[in-house]
Design goal:
Layout (H helix, E strand, L loop, with lengths): L6 H14 L6 E5 L4 H13 L4 E4 L10 H22 L14 H12 L4 H13 L8 H10 L4 H8 L3 H15 L7 E4 L2 E4 L4 H10 L8 E2 L6
Parallel strand pairs: 1-2, 4-5
Antiparallel strand pairs: 1-3, 3-4
């Protein structure tokens, strides 16, 4: 019989490792569950970054209300996501009705992020359901399944799902990223440096390991979607 791998124990071990190496920079992962790149990135960032902070942000904020720009970028991003999924050997199934905002699921993600250790398992479960299973995350039954994987109680999940006040903070987070130079999600922030796009994960991980805390701020971007 195979061994059971406990992800919570792995996360605890990584937390201990980062505490033993205080000169390492901390990383924050900004994500939107509506983006296929969150799905493509989530498992790798959870595995590669000790003491990672998960922060929900709305992709719409990065387009500053420009609907045409959002549409063009979305079409390019969809093609890029299919290419990246093939390169990463990951299944990619588009949910029915894609693109959808997954706003209800993002409110629950905000709840999970506020509860600390529940953010990673919720995002992993939700993004797999959406882009590996093709399910609508705003469906209450699908949302409940993702929440259960993170150990979130159903009453608090349902309350968070209907709490529109959470939208403002997630939009504000997206606008702050835009002001700092971000042009897409997900974003990894290491120190004060932004790594925009899931294809920059390895570079961000190297920055966590090697860069000193006094490093000057800069934003890394590339021209293609992702």
């Amino acid at each position: 019989m195979g061994n059971v791998i406990r992800l919570d124990e792995r996360r605890s071990a990584r937390q201990a490792a980062i505490e033993d190496a205080p000169t390492r920079l901390r990383a924050t992962f900004f994500f939107d569950l509506a983006s296929p790149f969150t799905y493509l990135a989530a498992e790798r960032v959870d595995r590669m970054f000790p003491a990672l902070t998960w922060r929900p942000a709305l992709s719409e904020a990065l387009h500053a209300g420009d609907a045409l720009s959002a549409t063009v970028d979305r079409e390019a991003a969809q093609a890029s996501a299919e290419q990246r999924a093939q390169l990463l050997h990951m299944p990619l199934v588009w949910p029915d009705g894609y693109p959808t905002g997954a706003r209800v699921a993002m409110r629950v993600a905000a709840l999970a992020a506020a509860n600390g250790g529940q953010a990673a398992p919720f995002v992993l479960a939700a993004s797999r359901l959406a882009f590996c299973g093709g399910f609508d995350l705003d469906d209450p039954e699908v949302l409940a399944e993702a929440a259960a994987a993170a150990g979130l109680g159903l009453p608090e999940v349902m309350a968070a799902a209907g709490d529109r006040s959470r939208d403002g903070e997630m939009e504000a987070t997206g606008l702050r990223l835009l002001a700092q130079g971000a042009d897409r999600l997900p974003v990894l922030k290491v120190g004060r440096t932004l790594f925009c796009g899931e294809h920059r994960i390895a570079e961000a991980a190297a920055a966590v390991r090697r860069r000193p805390r006094h490093v000057e701020s800069r934003t890394t971007q590339v021209p293609h979607a992702g």
